[in-house]
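Hi V.,

You were right to ask for the full record rather than a summary. Here it is.
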Amino acid sequence: TFISVVCVVGLLACTPERVAVKDSAPLWLDFEELRAASALVTSNDVPVLSGSDLSKLDKAADLYRGGFLEGCDADWCLIERESLTLAYQFILERLMTHHGAVGDWSSVVKTSNRLLVLDPFLEHVHRTKMRALGKMGERAKVAEQYMRIRDLLRDELNVEPFPETEQAFRE
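Predicted structure:
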């Protein structure tokens, strides 16, 4: 089988119970890039990123194509999928903060859209997007965004938006 061949070549560590990529294997793994970028996020809390850090986070965010091994429901896979999805979310949130700090409102909107695809209930992201749209003079889009989160919260959770969201709508 393919795995047997790969084990012989030395890329995988194989036992009857598990198969794992060897640390010494000369492979590039997208999820390792995502993890490294996520570690950068947690170690760097200044609002504006350096050019190098911004580039690393942008590249890592662009690697994400969906959940890790979609269709695999093994416990280890579900844990890994959740961990990588959270890493992606942290990276996007950090990018959104950076773009807001430098006044790049269109990038704030683009990044917030990516976050809202991941989780449409992130009310703080809706607020950030509304504020960015407001800075861009897009009052009609601010109202649309507000109605989107208000209706989502009402329909799905039977709650109203936070007062901070109401305030962002009025700004």
